[in-house]
Amino acid sequence: RIVNGDGIVFNTTNFAPGTETVMHRTVSLDFVAVIEGEMELVLDSGETTRLKPGDSIIQRQTNHPWRNPSKDKPARMVSLITPATGAIIDGKPISEEGFSVYGMGRPHAE
């Protein structure tokens, strides 16, 4: 889990060139800013948003992976993550899915 209980999590995440997380969802409200390199947020619809240093995004319970599209430059982002009330889709609460926090990165296919 990214968030446990009522606490707020602040973290810095480093991505090696070509790294991508698995598709995942957390029951949280995420404030994310890229501070080095470029990152892409890919929604399960296929929509992709590229973020450059200084860009930020706020998301709540979206199903997504993060990826560093560069072949030779690392990327770094900071996140402030707070617990969120579970959203309801088709009458069912959505839940966390897709990864364990540690070891979630993998090279992405082009």
From TrEMBL:
Transmembrane segments: none
Residue ranges of domain Cupin type-2 in the record: 14-80
Gene3D superfamilies: Jelly Rolls
UniProt xrefs under CDD domains: cupin_BLL6423-like (cd02231)
SUPFAM superfamilies reported in the protein's UniProt record: RmlC-like cupins
Stored InterPro entries: Cupin_2 (IPR013096), OryJ/VirC-like (IPR047142), RmlC-like_jellyroll (IPR014710), RmlC_Cupin_sf (IPR011051)
Domain of life from the UniProt record: Eukaryota
Protein name: Cupin type-2 domain-containing protein
